[in-house]
Amino acid sequence: MSYVDEVLAKVKEKNAGEPEFLQTVDEVLNSLRPVIEANEEKYKKQALLERLCEPERQIKFRVPWVDDNGQVQVNTGYRVQFNSAIGPYKGGLRFAPNVYIGIIKFLGFEQIFKNSLTGLPIGGGKGGSDFDPNGKSDAEIMRFCQSFMTELYRHIGPETDVPAGDMGVGAREIGYMFGQYKRITDRFDGGVLTGKGLTYGGALGRAEATGYGIVWYAEEMLKYNGDSLEGKRVAISGFGNVAWGTAKKLTDLGAKCVTISGPDGYIIDEDGVNTEEKWQCMLDLRNSGQNIVAPYAERFPNAKFIAGKKPWEYADADLYIPCATQNEIRIEDAKAIVASGTKYVCEGSNMPTTNEALEYLQSNGVIVGPAKAANAGGVATSCIEMGQNAGKTVFSAEQVLDQLHSIMVNIHKACADASMKYYGEYDLVKGANIAGFEKVADAMMAQGVV
Fold first, then answer.
1. Enclosing H/E stretch for 73
2. Which of 34, 130, 300, 301 is such that its CA lies 20 to 30 A from the CA of 106?
């Protein structure tokens, strides 16, 4: 049995109740086989893969808070500090009712490679809670965030672990948590959280960064294959911050975003989600707390709402960009995408494609830009925000976005070069895993058994 197979068997046995975590470990380790085989004796002696797949620290805690009716509620909080070989733990906080340790571990494991790909000195971590912010009042969200930070504060710091936002955690939640951290510690550690408001250390361009980065990565994919975004019709999912930034940058580069989606269904807008009014509508829907997109079609009569369906059935797209949640593209969706005749999928959300669907897409000639590469723009800009805070300075939006654009171009090149080196073909999924892994593995080996 090969070293990769030995480790996969151990991980599956030890984490049997965590399918999302097992999914990402399986996908990553299998793509690393040629790298591992070339260094198997060295890596196996140091148990490198076992250490890579085991978080350095897992924190689980209760989060009691009082709702507006005076009733005490209790949620569970998590922070998984996965790997600090190349820098302090860095990764977002997710507030959603389906959050449990397996989802946090999958996100944290992906974050190791994503952060490595940026070329910036940040390690991998992730956190969150099974708290659902939808339908909660501002006062309830504030009380929850303060309780959450009352425990989390002791585990984080600018040189230790720097959380940010993720699904269900935006500028409002970051603000409440930062205020509580500052109150407890009596310190203004601007670099302890990223995604902050502009008045207290946030970075210009951070709100757009993830979506912009995805589109810049997609642009590089198409360029590499002799194509361009100009005139392309793009189907995206989601309607939150990632989808919003994606729709804006697609418009800037001459493409047309023709779908958005939510848990209730999806919107087809043949005119394009391409005006300030439509982008503001996305923000209004996100801030409504209802988590639905149907009202978009009421506001823009030329748009059509398809209830209970996903945009992957839309057959007239040249490019598909999932921007919602994990495993939103399943095998039936992959078959629909292939049947549409498109050549490109660029993953915007974390692990949006099941392994079965990913294999089907790639085996049928679809070029896939993996999330850990395409989605890295958000964390890269968070690291720029950390640098801004550390230097007690302020970068212009142009400075931030110019740095981000260069980072995304370099990430694509690293993925393409790694896949050509080890596989002799343009496979961005394998290339992203390899390019992210090599840097982390070198650092882990250099630092000894820790």
1. strand 72-83
2. 34
φ and ψ of 163, to 5 deg? -70, 165
Looking at residues 281-291, what average pLDDT do you find? 92
Residue 255 reports pLDDT greater than 90: yes
SS3 84: coil
Q: Measured between alpha carbons, how far is 47 from 42 in angstroms, rounded to an integer?
A: 9
Q: How many CB atoms lie within 10 A of CB 385?
A: 27
Residues in Cβ contact with 209 at an 8 Å cutoff, skipping those fewer than 6 apart: 245, 377, 378, 380, 381, 400, 401, 404
Q: What is the pLDDT of residues 342-368, one digit of tens each?
A: 999 999 999 999 999 999 999 999 999
- Tell the residue number behind the tokens 């980065």, with chain if given: 213
Reading the block at residue 91, the tokens are 């990764």
| Strand-pair partners of 72 | 66
Token digits for 350?
Answer: 């974390």
**Among all residues, which ones are annotated catalytic?**
126
Question: For the segment 71-123, what is each residue's pLDDT rounded down to a tens digit?
Answer: 999 999 999 999 999 999 999 999 999 999 999 999 999 999 999 999 999 99
Residues with Cβ < 8 Å from 252, sequence gap 6 or more? none
Q: How far apart are CA 323 and CA 86, in angstroms?
A: 28
Three-state SS at 127: strand
Nearest to 296 by CA among 344, 238, 349: 238
For residues 87 and 90, what is the distance between their CA atoms, to the nearest angstrom? 8
**Using CA atoms, how far apart are residues 167 and 261, in angstroms rounded to an integer?**
15
In 3D, which of 66, 32, 61 has the Cα closest to residue 49?
32
The distance in angstroms from the start CA to the end CA of the chain is 26
